[in-house]
Write a structure and sequence with these properties.
Number of helices: 2
Number of strands: 7
Order of helices and strands: HHEEEEEEE
Helix content: 25-40%
CATH topology of one domain: Immunoglobulin-like
Strand content: 25-35%
Strand order of the largest sheet: 5-4-3-7
Distance between the termini: 130 Å
Radius of gyration: 48 Å
């Protein structure tokens, strides 16, 4: 038999701690990134495989494909128009002519020199024969002719926008104090 050791029985060694064999805490984010990449690659591959199975044959012409795309676009817009609200009735076209207006010559200033005649400052103001509501949103020109000036007829244009207009002062010379200036519409242009 063996002699017992003077110190007593031999103590047993403490058990060794063996680290777990799973992934460490540091490698978990890397593992998640790798799994994400694998999922993305698998999705792309699956999409490609599905796309290939529904693609037209290689024998079909590009004209057929472009016609199909054109038909799809046409169908889309036709459906879109059907779904949209009904369009408002088209506004009637404003048909204006010289007979729709009268012109008034308003004398702003008049200086007469006996038998030498008169110098006159005047404005031409339009008067619409219809309802003003009909022209309140319209833009148009009224071309007119003023007679009575000793140098001959004068031509001018008034632009009416939404029923309002700017009146410019014009000048004329007459042969006497009894001569009256008269204005008449020659043309109306609607824009």
């Amino acid at each position: 038999m063996t002699d017992p050791s003077p110190l007593g029985p031999k103590p047993t060694e403490p058990p060794k701690v063996v680290p777990a064999t799973g992934p460490s805490r540091r490698s978990r984010p890397l593992l998640l990134v790798n799994l994400g990449l694998v999922a993305i690659i698998a999705s792309i591959a699956l999409g490609f495989a599905i796309g290939r199975s529904t693609a037209p044959d290689a024998d079909s012409s590009s004209e057929t494909r472009s016609t199909k795309a054109s038909d799809d676009v046409s169908d889309y817009w036709a459906a879109k128009e059907a779904d949209s609200e009904p369009e408002e009735a088209e506004e009637p076209t404003l048909d204006l002519g010289p007979d729709d207006f009268q012109l008034k010559v308003k004398i702003v200033e008049k200086q007469c020199f006996g038998s030498a005649g008169c110098n006159i400052q005047y404005k031409v103001e339009p008067i619409y024969a219809g309802e003003l509501a009909e022209i309140e949103d319209a833009l148009f020109d009224i071309t007119f002719r003023v007679t009575g000036d000793e140098s001959g007829p004068q031509l001018g244009t008034l632009t009416l926008d939404g029923g309002s207009y700017d009146v410019e002062t014009r000048s004329a010379s007459t042969s006497g104090s009894g001569v009256k200036l008269k204005a008449s519409v020659t043309e109306v242009t609607v824009y």
